[in-house]
Structures are given as C-alpha cells and as structure tokens.
Amino acid sequence: MLNKRFFKTKNEAEVTFEFQHPQAEQVQLVGEFTDWQPVAMKFNKKEQCFKLKQRLPNDQQFHFRYLVNGTIWDNDHHADGYIANSFGTENSIVNTQRI
C-alpha cells in the first residue's frame, strides 16, 4: 500500500510504502529511486506489515518492487500502476503527481 503526503513548501512527496507477505521474515524495497539497490523495510508489530518512508520528487512516476527474504520478488498490490520489465514480469509504479 502507498500512502502519500505532499508538502506546501517543498517540491517532493513523502511516500510510505507498506507491504505484507505471509512468508516474510525480511522485506526490502528496490526501485529506481534507490538505484535498484535493496533498502531494508522495518516490521511494524502493531500493524503487522513492513514499512519504509521515502521522499520522492513531485510530478514523476517511479518503478519499484519488493524483495521478500532475499529471494522472492513481489509487487505492491495497491500500486498506482504496473509496467512490464525486461525479466518477463511487472514492476509496480508509484506516481507523485498531486491530485
């Protein structure tokens, strides 16, 4: 799930990435905005999901995926969209355009 917060004085959005997976012991966020390098997400016991906040420039869209336990790739099932990638699967899309 993606939660977005826009700032009045900054040209960026704070996006909270939230992800649940029944087999997840660890989850990493991997995307264009991390140069496709995995970034560890923290487990929130209260909400029973992994979370990570990331600031991204406004009015753009970015591809990303989740890496579960270092071996399983998954998409955000509440992403703003999906696009085919060169591996024969799809990437999730986060859009930072103000609506």
Features:
four-stranded antiparallel β-sheet; 99 residues; Immunoglobulin-like; six-stranded antiparallel β-sheet
Describe this entry's structure for a reader.
The structure is a single chain. With 99 residues, the chain is mainly beta. It has a single domain (2-95), classed as Sandwich (Immunoglobulin-like). 0% of the residues lie in helices and 54% in strands. It has no helices and 10 strands. It has strands at residues 2-6, 12-19, 27-31, 39-40, 42-44, 49-57, 61-68, 72-74, 81-84, 90-95. Strands 3, 4, 7, 8, 9 and 10 form a 6-stranded antiparallel β-sheet that branches. The protein has a 4-stranded antiparallel β-sheet with strand order 1-2-6-5, with no helix packed on it. A hairpin with a 5-residue loop joins strand 1 (2-6) and strand 2 (12-19). Residues 15-95 form the AMP-activated protein kinase glycogen-binding domain. This is 1,4-alpha-glucan branching protein.
Unreliable stretches covering 5 or more consecutive residues: none
What's the structural domain tally?
A: 1
Could you give a short account of the major beta sheet? 6 strands, antiparallel
Q: Briefly note the structural class of the backbone.
A: mainly beta
CATH topology: Immunoglobulin-like
CATH homology-level superfamily: Immunoglobulins
CATH architecture: Sandwich
CATH hierarchy, class? Mainly Beta
* Straight-line distance between termini: 17 Å
Helix content: under 10%
Please tally the β strands and state the result.
10
What string gives the helices and strands in order?
EEEEEEEEEE
Strand content: over 45%
Apparent shape:
globular
Report the total helices. 0
Please, what is the oligomeric state? single chain
What is the C-alpha radius of gyration, as a whole number of Å? 13 Å
Overall mean pLDDT: 95
Protein name: 1,4-alpha-glucan branching protein
InterPro entries: AMPK1_CBM, Ig-like_fold, Ig_E-set
Organism: Pseudoalteromonas arctica
Domain AMP-activated protein kinase glycogen-binding: 15-95
